[in-house]
Design brief:
The structure holds two protein chains of two kinds. Chain A is of the alpha/beta class. In chain A, 42% of the residues lie in helices and 14% in strands. Chain B is mainly α. Chain B has one domain. Chain B contains five helices and no strands. The chains are: A alpha/beta, B mainly alpha. The interface between A and B is medium-sized, with 16 and 12 residues.
């Protein structure tokens, strides 16, 4: 029996987090849920706990990358076979979760990403700036890794033990998904994309405007090139830094 | 030639810098590890200030023989850049360590929460009640 943990990073999501946790538990009550509260100032932790999740509360806001990594470290420490990451704002539809587990169960992949662009979601039309960025990174990562990747910005992912161990030790920080994709391919982990539907954000509009998209694109592109050029992708155990 | 007054002023400045650094190390307010670069800076500036012939020669090589003190400024700026770069690496390491510590604290606290919940005697948890009573 494979043990599965759902890793849900959340920052000030008390309005959405309860439903997210309950939805995951409704899909499969055997899936443990761990909410990583990234220094929220509202009742996120209490709401998550009341909904039946384990809660890991970071003492202050570390940003999405480090929050997700905390969840992977939790999964590693507690010996889970599989970790699934879903966002705390409810944009990832938990009922799509079993689709992500199928390639892992067959041993065909180390990481399975839910892609909005594998023909699963015709309705998903992000605004222009965001769409350009997504296309740019899909092309760039495909070229860098030699594997066709359609959705590098999706945070809806399932990982096996090898991938959990990698990300527990080394996970990028600011906008981590793109860089993480390159990282795992560099470590010769097998990535498979499956088509999923995603919901519009339940609360508030996406904060990414055109100008911010450009800034984000430049920054992440640089981070990608640095990641490719880095001497060792994983800092070796006990190496002086 | 370098004006004598500039040499004197620069020497006094460099000597003061060295004194302050040594005093900070003595008072344990500056770790030797971070002081090393500053000490090198102070000594190099002191040597350049006092060794007037050398300063002129170097300025001649670099084509600023008409105004040798420029070498003093250039050296000072180079050392400041080196110190700043060193600080950036230190800061990066501290940031990484800080994240690691925060994650570790959060994971440990989650474990304690579970342990405490198990240890609290409730109707649902007779084992803990029995342990407490015993």
């Amino acid at each position: 029996m494979t043990s599965i943990v759902a890793v849900v990073p959340a920052f000030d999501e008390e309005a959405a987090i309860g439903a997210v946790v309950e939805e995951i538990r409704a899909v499969d009550p055997l899936i443990d849920v761990v909410v990583v509260d990234d220094g929220s100032t509202d009742g996120t932790a209490d709401v998550a706990r009341a909904a039946g999740a384990a809660v890991v509360r970071l003492p202050f806001n570390l940003g999405i990358g480090a929050a997700v990594q905390t969840g992977f470290r939790y999964a590693l420490e507690h010996g889970y076979d599989v970790a699934v990451r879903l966002d705390g704002d409810g944009q990832h539809d938990a009922t799509e979760l079993p689709k992500l587990l199928i390639p892992l169960g067959r041993g065909e992949a180390d990481v399975v990403t839910g892609s909005r662009f594998r023909g699963g979601d015709d309705a998903y039309r992000p605004p222009l700036g965001r769409r350009l960025g997504i296309t740019w990174f899909a092309r760039l990562v495909s070229i860098l890794s030699g594997q066709k990747v359609t959705d590098t910005t999706s945070g809806f992912q399932a990982l096996n033990r090898d991938a959990i161990a990698l990300f527990a030790r080394d996970y990028p920080s600011d906008y981590p998904e793109v860089e993480a994709t390159v990282l795992l391919l560099k470590h010769r982990l097998r990535l498979v994309e499956v088509p999923v539907r995603m919901r519009e954000r339940e609360h508030g509009s996406s904060s990414i405007t055109l100008l911010r998209s450009i800034y984000y694109a430049i920054k992440v592109t640089l981070a990608l090139l640095v990641a490719m050029a880095r001497r060792s992708a994983i800092p070796s155990e006990g190496s002086p830094r | 030639m370098t004006p004598v007054r500039i040499s004197i002023a620069a020497a006094i400045g460099a000597a003061l810098l060295l004194l302050i650094i040594l005093e900070l190390i003595r008072g344990r307010r500056l770790k030797e590890r971070y002081a090393l670069l500053w000490l090198v800076t102070g000594v190099a500036l002191l040597v350049l200030a006092l060794w007037r012939g050398g300063l002129n020669t170097i300025a001649g090589w670099l084509g600023v023989g008409t105004y040798p003190p420029a070498i003093l400024f250039a050296a000072a700026i180079m050392f400041v850049i080196a110190v700043l770069l060193h600080y950036s690496t230190v800061l990066s390491r501290l940031t990484d360590d800080n994240v690691l510590l925060a994650q570790e604290v959060a994971l440990l606290r989650a474990r304690i929460d579970v342990l405490e919940a198990d240890a609290t005697p409730t109707a649902k948890n007779p084992a803990a009640t029995a342990r407490r009573a015993g």
